[in-house]
Write a structure and sequence with these properties.
The chain is built from two helices and no strands. It is mainly alpha-helical. The chain has one domain. The termini are far apart.
Length: about 100
C-alpha cells in the first residue's frame, strides 16, 4: 500500500463516499419514515466524514510536498558530490602532470 499513488488513494476514498451517499439516497427514497427519524444523525456523520476526508487529503498533500522537497534536496546533494568528485579527479590529474 506504500507504493500507491496518493491521488489514487484520494480518488478511492472519494469514490467510496460517493457510493455511500448514493446508497443513503436510495434507502431514503425507499423508506422515508426511517430517514426522518435518523436524518440529523446521518447529517452529523456526513459532516464528520467530510471533515475526515479533508484532513486526510491535506495530510496527503503535505506528504507529497515534503517528498518533493526531499527529492530536490537529494538532487542538490548528488550534484555537489559529482562536482567534488570531478574536482578531485582534476586535482589528481594536475598532480600527476607536474
Amino acid at each position: 500500500m506504500h507504493d500507491e499513488d496518493p491521488m489514487d488513494l484520494i480518488e478511492y476514498i472519494k469514490g467510496s463516499l460517493e457510493y455511500l451517499l448514493q446508497s443513503k439516497q436510495e434507502i431514503s427514497k425507499k423508506s422515508p419514515k426511517r430517514m426522518d427519524f435518523s436524518e440529523s444523525f446521518h447529517e452529523k456523520h456526513n459532516i464528520e466524514y467530510e471533515q475526515l476526508i479533508q484532513n486526510l487529503e491535506a495530510e496527503i498533500r503535505n506528504h507529497i510536498r515534503i517528498e518533493h522537497q526531499l527529492k530536490i534536496h537529494i538532487d542538490d546533494i548528488e550534484s555537489k558530490i559529482e562536482d567534488k568528485e570531478s574536482n578531485e579527479m582534476k586535482y589528481k590529474n594536475t598532480i600527476e602532470v607536474t
